[in-house]
Design a protein that fits this description.
Strand order of the largest sheet: 6-7-8-3-9-10
Low-confidence stretches: none
Structural class: alpha/beta
CATH topology of the largest domain: Rossmann fold
CATH superfamily of the largest domain: P-loop containing nucleotide triphosphate hydrolases
Helix content: 25-40%
CATH architecture of the largest domain: 3-Layer(aba) Sandwich
Radius of gyration: 25 Å
CATH class of the largest domain: Alpha Beta
Largest sheet: 6 strands, mixed
Distance between the termini: 34 Å
Number of strands: 14
Strand content: 25-35%
Mean pLDDT: 84
Amino acid sequence: MPPIISVQGLNKTYASGFEALKNLDLDINTGEIFALLGPNGAGKTTLISIICGIANPTRGTVTADGHDILTDFRQARAKIGLVPQELATDAFETVWATVNFSRGLFGKAPNPAHLEKILRQLSLWDKRNSKIKALSGGMKRRVMIAKALSHEPKILFLDEPTAGVDVELRRDMWEMVRGLREQGVTIILTTHYIEEAEEMADRIGVISNGEIILVEEKTALMRKLGKKQLTLSLREPLANVPDSLAAMPLTLSEDGRELNYNFDTEQEHSGISELLKELDSQGVEFRDLRTRESSLEDIFVGLVHGQ
């Protein structure tokens, strides 16, 4: 099956000479949740703006569900729903009028049943006659999602969708996003909450300085780049790591009471048994041990900093 979004050789250079995107290639598969991660200024919003027709590329091609975003703009844009970071709505309109108007902008015939379904999914049905200005920030964010879904897009961009909302509402929105994926909607998510990507995404893309530096299935990424750390709490502090253990990836805490051993989850032999035997032979006793596996945040930080 061809990708629902295909980006080839995409470049964006502003009049100032700043190169926001650098010959970027990216394919997004139909029906997946794709998380695009990157630090501020990496090019995430620029990429989304180009795909959604808000900004023009300097060069390169982008297709959405087979439609070129420049030569077939209307068809391409009709396939896309966008939830931007900013809460941009008419404060004095009602929820229903706002969502209904958004559907009409795409030339869709009135469909009250569809709009009701969306509002119910987003727990907005009871607020349908409320003015936007009377809603909480979290409810306004839900209205933005309802607007983006009003014309029945096949692709949904969520640009920092849970910024500024509480943890409970964030988890409600995660469930809503999974439900949309089950209905066949492809979802592209940008987020500063790394746990959000770790919880939801099928694949992860990392962008830095206008370039895609990695695209990988989440589970494969965690397995390939994930590290584990074994921490041994010592009965007596050490002044330094014994010479016989110098070749092992060991670090000693400043107070000398903890030994940290890093090992690769991909390796068949972790080396832990050898470590414990050598500690025993050196008379080094420990009273507790614990392991920690690197999170997606650890992996992301390492990638962005070129490690």
